Structure formats: structure tokens, C-alpha cells
């Protein structure tokens, strides 16, 4: 563990290590801290600042990170099952091989994030900005899927079943893709994705 430079946050961590239950880090500045491999199940990171924090293989089951600033954070192989990340900033964050089963990501800035092999099964991805993100080999099975992408979003190898629509932004403006057009576009980019409502798929 590497303590955050903010003394209030460091003291809260010390107290938590001596007690029981989840960590209350609401509004704290945990930027630069290394919390890798820690068990933060049912903790509160609401509105916390966690810029460039390390949470490699951390357990965050049912934690609340609503509005958290996770720019550049490393969450490789972490467990974010049923975590609330609504309104969070994940720009430049690394979530490779992370588990986001049934997580909630509404109105999230995930531009330039790396989500290679990330599992989003049953997650709500509503208003997520994945422009210039790396989503190669990610799994989106059964996802509510209203995201924004661009020509720099890497989609090779993605699999699963999704609802639409997807907004594609580029130099010529933006357009919305749904249904068969969305399925064709995703699979033409190297994915193997089924879109709900296409060819009788419910």
C-alpha cells in the first residue's frame, strides 16, 4: 500500500485498517495512492478524487463511486461487480480484465480508457463516452448500451448482446446507429455482437 499524500485521506485509511466494514472515503483525495489487492467491498468513494490511484486486483463489490474522479487510475483485474460509477470520470483509466458485472455506468466520461477484456455482463452503460477507448475483447452480454464512440475506438474482438443505440462521432458530425445497422457496424469493426431485436433476437 502507498498512502495518499493528503493527510486527511491517509488518516481515514489508517482508521479503516484498524476497524471493520467498508471504507468511508466520501469526498476524500486519494490521488496517487496504491490500494492494490485491498478488499473495499461495500465502501463509499462517492465524489472522491482518485487521480492516478492504483487499485490493481482490488475488491470493490457493491461499492459506491458515484461522481468519483478516476482519471488515469489503474483498476486492472479489479472486481467492480454491482459498483455504482454514475457520473464518474474514467478518462485514461485502465480497466483491463476488470469485472463490471451488473455495474452502473450512467453519464460517464471513459474517453481514452483501456478496457481490454473487461467484462460488462448485465451492466448499464447509459451515456458512456468511449471515444478513443480501447475495448478490444470486452464482453457486453445483456448490456443496456447507449454509448458514444468514434473512429479511434478499438472494438476488435468484442462479444455479447446489447441494446442500442450507439452514437458515432467523427469529423463529419455525429450519427446514431441502432438495430441491424448497429450490429453490422460493430461486427464490421471486428466484433461478434448481437443487437437485441435484430433477426428475432429478444
Topology:
Elements: H1 7-18, E1 104-106, E2 124-129, E3 144-150, E4 159-162, E5 166-170, E6 173-177, H2 179-188, E7 192-195
Parallel strand pairs: 1-2, 2-3, 3-5, 4-7
Antiparallel strand pairs: 5-6
Structure report:
Keywords: Repeat. Pfam families: Pentapeptide. This is Pentapeptide repeat-containing protein. β5 (166-170) and β6 form a beta hairpin. The chain is built from two helices and seven strands. Helix content is 11%, strand content 17%. The mean pLDDT is 93. The protein has a five-stranded mixed beta sheet. Strands 4-7 form a two-stranded parallel ribbon. The protein has a single domain, classed as Pectate Lyase C-like (3 Solenoid). The chain has 202 residues and is of the alpha/beta class. The termini are far apart.
Helix run count = 2
Please identify the top-level CATH class: Mainly Beta
Structural Rg: 17 Å
Q: Looking at the structure, what is the overall shape?
A: elongated
Main-sheet strand order equals 1-2-3-5-6
Supply the helix-strand structural class: alpha/beta
Count the beta strands.
Answer: 7
CATH architecture: 3 Solenoid
Keywords: Repeat
InterPro entries: 5peptide_repeat (IPR001646)
Protein name: Pentapeptide repeat-containing protein
Pfam families: Pentapeptide
